[in-house]
Amino acid sequence: MAVSILGVSFSDRTMDETVALLVRAVEDGRTVHVVTANPEIVMQARRNPDYAAAVRGADLIVPDGVGILIGARLLGRAIPERVAGYDLLHRLMAEADRRRWRVFLLGATPEANEGALRALQRQYPGAVYVGHHHGYFGPDEEEAVVRRIEDARPHLLFVSLGVPRQELFIARHKHRFTGVCMGTGGSFDVLAG
Ligand code: UDP
């Protein structure tokens, strides 16, 4: 159930199927690293071997962007629809709202991080916001940030540290987390408005 484009293996599930899969994983207490991959990520993976390893090690790579769908079609394969990161974030938050999941937001500037938190709290009041941290910390602070996430035990960890940092961060630390860990790029900036 995958379509390979330039060495990156994309899921060919619809948005609904993707959400159902991730809900099951969270309920089963599994860890799922989700990469919402666009052509920028594919090109970055070709340039940067560490990044390629982080992406290859992900559990689910979904096609964020029509470029990937067009690429698949050129290879004679079909991906049914786009699974955009920002839309997937909202779909997962709707589940978190209904199921009272714990949510942690890592990344963006302190203002955007807090703005995103406020926006999600307004839209999804049933979710439990167990922690948040901005994305401008140095290597010496990383362990403290990871410890905070670990202690908060989020079902959903959204990581907006930009490409390639967000996928590298998740790959490095996911063995200490349970639930969905997903790089969310500029989503917090959009949520904060
Ligand atoms: N970001 C961060 N720490 C960093 C670099 C970026 O938290 O060291 C955040 C940035 O504030 C933005 C998000 O990561 O909210 C995405 O950044 P950008 O648009 O530069 O990355 P890309 O679109 O390439 O993923």
UniProtKB/TrEMBL annotation:
GO terms for biological process: cell wall organization; teichoic acid biosynthetic process. It catalyses: UDP-N-acetyl-alpha-D-mannosamine + N-acetyl-alpha-D-glucosaminyl-di-trans,octa-cis-undecaprenyl diphosphate = N-acetyl-beta-D-mannosaminyl-(1->4)-N-acetyl-alpha-D-glucosaminyl di-trans,octa-cis-undecaprenyl diphosphate + UDP + H(+). Pathway: Cell wall biogenesis; teichoic acid biosynthesis. Keywords: Cell wall biogenesis/degradation, Glycosyltransferase, Teichoic acid biosynthesis, Transferase. GO terms for molecular function: N-acetylglucosaminyldiphosphoundecaprenol N-acetyl-beta-D-mannosaminyltransferase activity. Its EC number is 2.4.1.187. Catalyzes the conversion of GlcNAc-PP-undecaprenol into ManNAc-GlcNAc-PP-undecaprenol, the first committed lipid intermediate in the de novo synthesis of teichoic acid. Belongs to the glycosyltransferase 26 family. TagA/TarA subfamily. This is N-acetylglucosaminyldiphosphoundecaprenol N-acetyl-beta-D-mannosaminyltransferase. It comes from Calditerricola satsumensis. The chain holds residues 1 to 193 of 243 of the full protein.
